[in-house]
Design a protein that fits this description.
With about 280 residues, the protein is an alpha/beta fold. The chain has eleven helices and ten strands.
């Protein structure tokens, strides 16, 4: 597996396994299968409710925890000085007691500056090896970075061939923030798995549509975390390092970019209202 260095020198795999929307019991089996298939990065979150399942899957795999790179995220209802720190300690415990390799703030809402101060504290105390954010648009990322003692090292955002986020990527590069994609298969929307451009290119290389999409993102310095509950698909998704695109193929895939979110637009007022109301309800506000 290829790695990329974060701004603090910690090495992070460029391709991992995501467990969003997988129940806790199934997560344990899937994580063990993913590790057996060769994955060394596992991505979870407090909000997924399956950190314990990730820990069990790691334990069941029999692999040394030090060989893995585990990512989790602080949910917005846990933002707040002291509260965020305690939630990180709880995640460390849920994930088996070892330092979490990368902890992210899940959303750029509520008092994320206070939450970030706790993230910095957890980092300095050795609870986590690296810290970053998720779903931060360029404005929020610049804002947080400007006032941080320890700048974010990763930003995980919706990214796939239909929304390639090139301007956003430029901002991340300027700030020294590594770019990580969630939903690299666009959740199957826009006819993703039947897309004629991806299909034709895949047939040319003996690869699936998913493999073409993952390789394209990897070639553009994007860390990816595809999800599947089927081991044969896990094995397929990790088998993407043995082919290359022609310049024409790169141009064809680049042209699929629609320039906007198709899954969950965090800049849309309706989305913002939904999330903030959800968090306020969870906090009993």
């Amino acid at each position: 597996m290829q790695n990329v260095p974060l701004s603090n020198g910690v090495e992070m795999p460029v391709l991992g396994y995501g467990v969003f929307q997988i129940d806790n019991d199934t997560t344990a089996r899937c994580v063990a299968d993913a590790i057996d298939a060769g994955y060394r990065l596992i991505d979870t979150a407090q909000a997924y409710g399956n950190e314990a399942g990730v820990a069990k899957g790691i334990a069941d795999s029999g692999i040394d925890r030090k060989e893995l790179f585990v990512v989790s995220k602080v949910w917005v209802s846990n933002y707040g000085e002291g509260k965020t720190y305690d939630s990180i300690k709880a995640s460390v415990d849920a994930l088996g007691g070892e330092p979490i390799d990368l902890m992210l703030l899940h959303q750029a809402y509520a008092d994320y500056h206070a939450a970030w101060r706790d993230m910095e504290r957890a980092y300095k105390d050795g609870l986590v090896r690296a810290i970053g954010v998720s779903n931060f648009n360029p404005n929020r990322l610049i804002d947080l970075s400007a006032f941080a003692d320890v700048a974010p090292m990763v930003n995980q955002v919706e990214t796939h061939v239909f929304w390639q986020e090139r301007p956003e990527h430029e901002v991340m590069e300027q700030l020294g923030v590594k770019y990580m994609a969630w939903s690299p298969f666009a959740e199957g929307q826009n006819g993703f798995f039947q897309n004629p451009v991806l299909t034709e290119i895949g047939e040319r290389h003996g690869k699936s549509v998913g493999q073409v999409a993952l390789r394209y993102l990897l070639d553009n310095d994007v860390i990816v975390i595809p999800k599947s509950t089927h081991k044969e698909r896990m094995e397929e998704n990790i088998d993407v390092f043995d082919f290359e695109f022609s310049d024409e193929e790169k141009t064809q895939i680049a042209a699929l970019d629609g320039g906007r979110s198709i899954i969950f637009d965090h800049t849309d007022p309706k989305t913002v209202s939904y999330l903030t109301n959800l968090v306020k309800e969870q906090m009993g506000a």
